[in-house]
Amino acid sequence: PKKALIIGAGVAGIAAAIRLAIKGYEVEVYETNSYPGGKLNQFEQDGYRFDAGPSLFTMPQYVDELFELAGKKPSDYFRYQKLDPVCKYFYEDGTRLIAYADFNKFGSEVQAQTGEPAHSVKLYFENSSRIYNITNHVFLERSLHRLKTYLRWDTLKSVFRFGKIDAFRSMHRANQSFFKDKRIVQFFDRYATYNGSNPYHAPATLNVIPHLEQHFGAYFPEGGMYSITSGLVKLAESLGAKFHYNCPVTEIVLDGKTVKGIWVNERIIEGDMVVSNMDIWFTYHKLLKAYPSLHPQKILSQERSSSALIFYWGIKQSFKELDLHNIFFSADYEAEFDHIWQQKAICDDPTVYLNISSKYKPNDAPGDCENWFVMINVPANAGQDWDSLIARARESILNKLSRLLGKDISKLIATESILDPRSIESRTSSYQGSLYGTSSNSQFAAFLRHANRSSKIKELYFCGGSVHPGGGIPLCLLSAKIVSGLID
Ligand code: FAD
């Protein structure tokens, strides 16, 4: 059989390994770290378990699909449950809003808490669903870089309807046209952060994201988010894929303009094709640094998505008013994004996202305690003085949570760990510590993501959050699907 070499065991690299093994390739995955998963990792500290990166699981069908392709019943390997409510929202003015999965119930909740008519919420979701129907098979499920995609009838139909995808105003402007209440505009603006973008600049096409969460639902994997990684690695291994840990790839070896293999731990491993799951910027700048003329400069200079600052806190108390997902909104959302995107800094009243997996998986924390994953959006790493930014943000976050929950949170912290843009960059080779590859702050972003195959080097493919169709677990899984289709 032909041999496929995969660089990196992030979720997309693992999915590519599964798909290629099913097709009969001999698959070898080389991973720098001593563990798989990349950003989708976990750790334990003083009796608390924390999912290190992603915490929101959407579009589970893309995980199930991998088990089904392998002829297995997904639920025998990987189980998850649907969330309802999905998330609790806390506003500085004292408003509390519960996002129910059922959208009629959510509409009534919006009307009861803010006075914004339930009917507006219905119209909003109809618009969101319309954008999805026009865009999904063009922007998400296929290669944008292949003539074949554009010759398909459903693509052409979509192209004729592009006027309806709202690409020429910002998400924020569009949201203001649907809602008068600032709190609800803020609620829907927040979806820009699902791919690390800025709602005041990102095209309103991204208002498709609420549809993905609302229509397809939000889920919790029974074993925590990390069970996505562990379940998929197990599946890949059962199909014969081999994982080599502590194996940083330092070069992609070419023979002319065709891939010959990879350079790992002082030796060459030969293969018929290479799939890089390493961030595209580092793939070129580290693994192909000998070939600057082959670098796609314009694509590599695209603005990166935002990064994150996370405090993992073991909390010696449980809070009934909190759920698995909780948002504590900033009072001035525009100022918050201005700090992230223009000033490359952190404002003193950031929106705080609090995830508590022990709400669904009690053994993630000791009895009557909770494992808090406390995250704010921050700029990508451009060499800021992170130590002082982090110290200041920690104070702001503690003040905010203590104020809105009526309890001094600093006294409840039993154990602490921190992840910031520098450590995200060094642990997963993500350029500037960005969470989702390039940002989507322009209407051309979708076309300026790197393709899933090199146009200059034969048998070189790319998957993961920094290439088409973009970041986040579902899109990373789709990138692997597109790669597997291209290899056909
Ligand atoms: P990565 O996870 O980036 O992994 C790449 C792997 O390649 C790493 O293991 C790295 O060590 C390895 N590697 C790199 N270079 C080499 C080399 N030269 N040789 C060998 N190995 C190499 N997504 C969601 O869907 N929902 C969320 O709620 C969510 N929240 C997030 C919160 C945080 C804090 C973070 C960091 C991310 C979040 N994301 C979320 C995004 C999601 O985690 C990523 O989009 C996705 O996991 C990226 O997967 P990937 O396949 O691109 O690889």
Percent strand equals 15-25%
Mean pLDDT: 95
Q: Determine the N-to-C terminus distance.
A: 14 Å
- Say what the CATH topology of the domain at 3-41 and 224-300 and 441-487 is: FAD/NAD(P)-binding domain
The radius of gyration computed from the alpha-carbon positions, rounded to a whole number of angstroms, is 22 Å
- Which geometry do the CA atoms define? globular
Total E-strand runs: 20
Strand order of the largest sheet: 8-7-16-17-18-15-19
- Helical content (DSSP H or I, runs of 4+): 25-40%
Structural class: alpha/beta
The largest sheet, given as strand count, sense and whether it forms a barrel, is: 7 strands, mixed
Number of H/I helices: 17
CATH homolog superfamily of the domain at 3-41 and 224-300 and 441-487: FAD/NAD(P)-binding domain
Text of the CATH class of the domain at 3-41 and 224-300 and 441-487:
Alpha Beta
Bound molecules: flavin-adenine dinucleotide
Low-confidence stretches: none
CATH architecture of the domain at 3-41 and 224-300 and 441-487: 3-Layer(bba) Sandwich
What would you say about this model in short?
The protein is of the alpha/beta class and 488 residues long. The chain is built from 17 helices and 20 strands. Among the domains are: 3-41 and 224-300 and 441-487, FAD/NAD(P)-binding domain (3-Layer(bba) Sandwich); 110-216, no CATH class.
